[in-house]
């Protein structure tokens, strides 16, 4: 705030000096500025407060799911996943991990994502819908079967880039955000 006062004071001093040297008739002081409404700081709406929380949980869900897909047989992933997911997404993902373990196979590489918040509902429970562009170009399914170890099992008909929609819901007792549904739209490239 004080940084703004010094230039204004300098202008007043320079202006007074110039007015003293001028032969023109001094102008009367201007009327004080009208009282303008003070500018209020930006106050976030509830939508602006909850959207980042839901996005953070969504990103954590992806980090953990990639770790689980990279080592589906290493341990029981369900307890860790329950901190970030709820049904039906939780059961669906745990079933997917069991399928990977039974093949046996695991994932290598990473998905690339570009999540954005599509909508926020403040109804109880609060819900955030996230649109994402899932790019699996650098992610591959690899066989762990004896004699096929390291062989890529990617389905040639599976699109590598497609739209994904997720819903993140705030659950009570204790309050926490959980990914409740994840819907891939493989027919919608992005």
Helices and strands, with pairings:
Elements: H1 2-21, H2 46-70, H3 78-81, H4 89-102, E1 105-109, E2 116-121, E3 127-135, E4 139-143, E5 161-171, E6 176-185
Q: Would you write up a description of this structure?
A:
The protein has about 190 residues and is an alpha+beta fold. The chain has a single domain, classed as Nuclear Transport Factor 2, Chain: A (Roll), CATH 3.10.450.240. It has helices at about 1-20, 45-70, 80, 90-100, and strands at about 105-110, 115-120, 125-135, 140-145, 160-170, 175-185. A four-stranded antiparallel sheet has the order 2-3-5-6. A two-stranded antiparallel ribbon has the order 1-4. Strand 2 (about 115-120) and strand 3 (about 125-135) form a beta hairpin. The protein is globular.
What is shown here, in short?
With 190 residues, the chain is an alpha+beta fold.
In spatial order, strands of the major sheet run: 2-3-5-6
Distance from first to last alpha carbon: 47 Å
Count of DSSP strands: 6
Within the CATH hierarchy, at the fold level, what is the topology?
Answer: Nuclear Transport Factor 2, Chain: A
- Helical amount among residues, as a percent range? 25-40%
Mean pLDDT: 83
For the record, the count of structural domains works out to 1
Q: What about the largest sheet? A: 4 strands, antiparallel
Rg, please?
A: 29 Å
Low-confidence stretches: 1-37
**Strand residues, percent:** 15-25%
CATH hierarchy: architecture: Roll
Count of helical regions:
4
């Amino acid at each position: 705030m004080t940084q703004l006062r010094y230039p204004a004071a300098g202008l007043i001093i320079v202006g007074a000096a110039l007015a003293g040297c001028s032969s023109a008739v001094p102008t009367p002081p201007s009327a004080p500025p009208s009282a303008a409404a003070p500018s209020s700081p930006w106050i976030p709406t509830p939508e602006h407060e909850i959207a980042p929380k839901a996005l953070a949980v969504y990103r954590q869900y992806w980090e953990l799911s990639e770790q689980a897909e990279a080592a589906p047989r290493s341990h029981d992933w369900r307890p860790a996943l329950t901190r970030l997911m709820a049904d039906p997404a939780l059961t669906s993902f745990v079933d997917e991990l069991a399928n990977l373990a039974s093949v046996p196979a695991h994932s290598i590489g990473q998905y690339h994502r570009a999540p954005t918040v599509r909508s926020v509902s403040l109804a109880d429970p609060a819900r955030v819908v996230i649109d994402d562009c899932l790019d699996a170009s650098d992610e591959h399914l690899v066989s762990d079967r004896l004699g096929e170890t390291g062989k890529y099992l990617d389905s040639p008909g599976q699109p590598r880039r497609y739209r994904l929609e997720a819903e993140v819901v705030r659950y009570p007792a204790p309050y926490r955000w959980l990914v409740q549904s994840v819907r891939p739209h493989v027919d919608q490239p992005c």
